[in-house]
Amino acid sequence: MYDYLIVGAGLFGSVFAHEATKKGKKCLVIDKRDHVGGNVYCENVDGINVHKYGAHIFHTNDKDIWDYVNQFAEFNNYVNSPVSISKGKLYNLPFNMNTFYQLWGTKTPEEAKTIIESQIKEFGYKNPKNLEEQALSLIGKDVYETLIKEYTEKQWGKKATELPAFIIKRLPVRYTFNNNYFNDAYQGIPIGGYNKIIDGLLKGIDIKTNVDFFKEKDTLSSLAKKIVFTGKIDEFYNYEYGNLEYRSLRFENTKLETENYQGNAVVNYNDSNVPYTRIIEHKHFEFGKQKHTVITKEFSEQWTTEKEAYYPINNDENQKKYQEYKALSLQESDVIFGGRLAEYKYYDMHQIIASALQKTKKEFNESV
Ligand code: FDA
Q1: Is 68 known to be catalytic?
Q2: Has keyword tRNA processing (predicted)?
Q3: Which domains can be identified in the chain, with CATH numbers?
Q4: Residue 247, ligand 1, Cβ within 6 A
Q5: What's residue 368's pLDDT?
C-alpha cells in the first residue's frame, strides 16, 4: 500500500513526491503523458534541449527556492532579453531606454518620460473599460500600437477593445538601458535541461507514465491511502459545474541546418499578419555551439477539451465555477489538490515549487 498516489509528474507532483519520500512515505507517481516533468519537460533533438511545452526560464527572488532547485542541477547564467519585431523593425523588451531610443530616438530618461507622460495625458482614460483603454492609460499610444496591440490580440484571439482591462494590471517601464526581462535576483536555465531537476526529484520513486487517472480511477485510488491530484479540478468532479476554460497553444518545431537562425532565444512577432506570436530558438538558452538549430513557432489557439490547457481564462464566469469546484475539494479528507490545473491558476515555476513545499509542510505538520 502506498501512502500517496500522486496524479501528475509535473513540478508540483514531483516536489511533493520528493518531500514525502524524504519523510519516509511511499509514493506512486502517475502521468497520462509518456514522460515525466509536465510542462517543463525538454525533448532532446540532436543534442538541443527543446522546451516542448513552451519556453521556460527559471527566475526567482527567493533564495530558498533557488537553493532548492540548485540541489538537482547547476544553472547557467542565461538572462532573458527578448526582442520584438513590429512592422519590420526590431525593438528591445521589456520597455526600457533601448526601446524608447528605437521608437523615438530619445537618449535620456527625461526625454522618454516626457513623451510617455504626454501620450498618457492625451490618449489615457480615467476609468479604462477594456484592455486597449487600460494600455493607453498606462503607456500611451506609440508603445501600445507598436508593441502591445496586435500581439495581445493574437494571444487572446480577440480585439483589444473586447478584452477586459484587468489582463494588463501594470506595464513595467524602465528608464534604464536594461534588457533583462525579469527583475529577479536569480535567473538561469538548468544545465542539462529541466529533465535533470525532475529526474533528481523523482529518483528512487515508483513512476508510471501513460496512465490516465480517470481511466482507472477506482483501481488506482485503492493503491494508496491518500491522493495528491495535480490534474484539472473540473475533470475530477466530472465537469459538474461545467468546463473551466483555457487558452491553448500550438508549437511548430523545425530543425534547420544553420548554426544561428535568429541570434536570440526569444523573438516576438507583433504584427497581426504573422500568424504566430513568437519564435523560440532553443539552443540559445544553453549557449549551444551545434552546427544545426531547432526553432519553434508558437501559435496561440482557441482551446477545446482535446487540446492542451495552457492559460486559464480568469474571467468572472470561470472564477465562479472554480470557486464551486474548490468548495467541493475542501470537503475531501484524502485528496490534496495542487498545481496549476487543480488550482486553475497561472503559476511560474518558482511559485509552484513554493506552493508544493508549503502543501507538504502542512500535510506533515498535521499528520506526523
Ligand atoms: P504541469 O502541467 O506541469 O503538470 C501536471 C501534470 O499532470 C501533467 O504532466 C499532466 O500530464 C498530468 N495529468 C493531468 N491530468 C492527469 C490525469 N488525469 N492522469 C494522469 N496525469 C495527469 N514558468 C516560469 O517560471 N518561467 C517560464 O518561462 C515559464 N514559461 C511558461 C510557458 C508556457 C507556455 C506556460 C503555459 C507556462 C510557463 N511557465 C513558466 C509555468 C510553468 O510551466 C508551470 O509553473 C509549471 O509547469 C506548473 O507545474 P504543475 O505541476 O502545476 O503542472
Answers
A1: no
A2: no
A3: 2-74+187-243+312-367 (3.40.50.720), 95-167 (no CATH)
A4: no
A5: 42
